[in-house]
Amino acid sequence: MKITRVVVQNYRALRALDVSTEGDLCCLIGENNTGKTAILRAIQLCLDVSLPSSFRSLVREDIHAALDISEPSQVLIGVEFSDFQGKVNEEALVATWKTAADRARIFYRFRPRPSVREQLQSEQMQPGDLTLEDYAWEIKGGGDPAIDLTEIAWSDDGVGESVRFSDLQSFLVVHLPALRDVENDLRSARLSPLIRLIESFEIPQTEQDALIAILDQANEEISQSQTIAQVAAAIDARFKNVSGPAFEMDAGLGLSASTFRAILRNLKILLSDVALQDFEPGRNGLGMNNILYVAILLEYLKRRIDAGRSAGQLILLEEPEAHLHPQLQFSLISALSDIGVQTILTSHSTHVTSQVPLATIVSLSKRADGTISVGNLATNAALSINEVADLERSHLRQHGPLSHATDNEGGQ
After folding, report:
1. In Å, what is the CA distance from 75 to each residue of 34, 46, 66, 81?
2. Which of residues 195 and 274 earns the better pLDDT score?
3. What is the CATH number of domain 2-171+311-399?
4. Residue 395 burial (CB count, 10 A)
5. Using CA of residue 198, residue 184, residue 346, residue 169, what is the dihedral sign?
6. Radius of gyration of the chain from its Cα atoms, rounded to whole angstroms
7. How far is CA 324 from CA 192, 335, 345, in A?
8. Does position 49 have pLDDT exceeding 70, yes or no?
9. Which H/E stretch holds residue 263?
10. Mean pLDDT, all residues of the chain
């Protein structure tokens, strides 16, 4: 299943955006503060169940400055899908979102609450009196295909079916922000993809029990060491002295609690090169740790696909070029292209954009009046057919085969 279109209205810097995201790789380019990150967050608002609900209740800074929220209005974010036909799990997920045989959509709206809409209709409340507290968010799917996402007004009710977060659990959204602490994430039991990858191997209970027995034996032998025993006894005595008899507890030293989960939490990735053997990622540079993190993540996603339990996955990746040598940038984009998981990324790197098909590059630019121009490069209405063909031929000579450009006009 692939996201084929993203529509955003009145969200952050994006007054009106309507772009195609065909293909496994879609690259968002543009100057700083033109809304590239906002597009990724907008997609999260629709699809990412791991995003806290508090983020879906927008604050004033999340709403386009030109929108007067005292007048009834809305922020709308819509995502359209295709390529799910014949895939049982994906068809089940989008069953109530479908608008055609191989088309589906889901959309987020932040608009006046139902009670406020009723008061406006009965004239108990007047336009111009609304505050942010009068707004609430909702997520719907499907609806009348004759009504385009761009045509849904704030007052339109009965458009689409309510989407339950439990339905979205099987669609995995992985967001990798630009300024992430990869080393810390690799150490974190909650954030590291390593534990998810290990769990995907479904280690048999007999093997788990054997590993726990090894840990038990190691704990026993360490506790019998003379110096370790002395340290443990000293801590135990001082702990009891400080806490007093009413709160007395025994203290000792060991590697970890003897559970399989404790083993997972304490497993470390060990690396080697020509200079060093078995060192932890903390000795690596930021770039190589970034590559390591993505490699583990891609292996997990591949196993998730092969297990046949997935109803889709999406990678949202900000500035993958950070701290990476150009050759590593090429390798990373090549790996993302081959994995079979759709990736929507932002980038300022020409090395990255040169590896992405021209038809899937979305350009954002700030106009002189502060508004944002957005469009798919290969479907820019300002370019003639011959100019697009020339650009694609030039790209093809330098970087290999391209997918075909779509027929949609992209400039706004």
Report:
1. 18, 12, 12, 20
2. 195
3. 3.40.50.300
4. 21
5. positive
6. 26
7. 20, 15, 15
8. yes
9. helix 260-266
10. 87
Task: Determine how many CB atoms are found less than 10 A away from the CB of residue 193.
Answer: 20
For residue 236, what is the enclosing H or E element? helix 226-243
Residues 20 and 30: their CA atoms lie apart, in Å, by 16
**77 vs 62: CA distance, rounded Å:** 12
- So where are the chain's domains? 2-171+311-399, 182-304
- Give the closest residue to 221 by CA, choosing from 253, 251, 267, 250: 253
Measured CA to CA in angstroms, residue 323 lies from 211, 229, 316 at distances of: 38, 46, 18
CA 382 – CA 312 distance, rounded (Å): 35
Please list the residues that pair with 366 across neighbouring strands.
372
Per-residue pLDDT of 362-393, as tens digits, reads 999 998 888 898 888 777 666 667 766 666 65
In sequence order, the 6+-apart residues with CB closer than 8 A to the CB of 353 are: 27, 29, 347, 361
The answer to whether 356 and 343 are in contact (CB under 8 A) is no
Distance CA(319)–CA(343), nearest Å, equals: 12
